[in-house]
Amino acid sequence: xxxxxxxxxxxxxxxxxxxxxxxxxxxxxxxxxxxxxxxxxxxxxxxxxxxxxxxxxxxxxxxxxxxxxxxxxxxxxxxxxxxxxxxxxxxxxxxxxxxxxxxxxxxxxxxxxxxxxxxxxxxxxxxxxxxxxxxxxxxxxxxxxxxxxxxxxxxxxxxxxxxxxxxxxxxxxxxxxxxxxxxxxxxxxxxxxxxxxxxxxxxxxxxxxxxxxxxxxxxxxxxxxxxxxxxxxxxxxxxxxxxxxxxxxxxxxxxxxxxxxxxxxxxxxxxxxxxxxxxxxxxxxxxxxxxxxxxxxxxxxxxxxxxxxxxxxxxxxxxxxxxxxxxxxxxxxxxxxxxxxxxxxxxxxxxxx
Length: 353
Fold this sequence. Notes:
By secondary structure, the protein is α/β, with parallel strands linked by helices.
């Protein structure tokens, strides 16, 4: 039986200034199985084929998996960067060399995201328009992605809800449709984390594994990432669903600082979630209530207490804690994993080679 490999996303240690090569050596020395990079330009800024091939060989020699992503296909985000409205063809043309670079790296899938946690709420461009534009760009790229055998792994990047992501997947060619599941981000978009993970599992080809906590505030809730196994998520149940669908799935730990605001008491904020499920938000509020009970009993530190510790003083401990937790639970999950709820809109992706 294939073994789920455990690595990390480079974003977790980006503040340490490691070169790409130093990042690989760090991973090897710390007992990780691989590294996920933002995109190929984070490995070689010029996307030089020779440099990328050498880096691939280095990862192979170290016995590490290597993953990389692509910038967003969202024309609205490119419009802000370029200061003008780009066409679908212009955005696709911008992404094509990066897709070719992924092929040189031997990547079978590419993590992408549509927006960040703010884009849904922008007044200059409706979220539905951003989704539509992103879909058009992906459709324009589909022939080349198919020819190179690269699947897009669209992330739950605190932007898309599970329903929106499944709706987007349903409109894509199954050969290029995949998901990067960020376990911690699901609650930020008011999805029940376990239910959403089970629904998305058939299409998950990459991950960001993190835990999280919630707390009540005067505006509603706040959210904070935590090392895997140290928050409120039912991590074993989530992983069981993912590993049942794909036993050889890579588990890339992604941790970061900051407390994020979820003002669920604000009707205007909630109006940006037209498909909001009452049972899902009830589940999120229940998780927050469970956190509050644990804060009160002293078994869980409050977000502001943890955030008072500088990130460089807790990142390495968080990575080590997350790796140790996953090493302890993953071997026991494959046989006990529960089948995810499959969706009929499209066929799930085939296993990676």
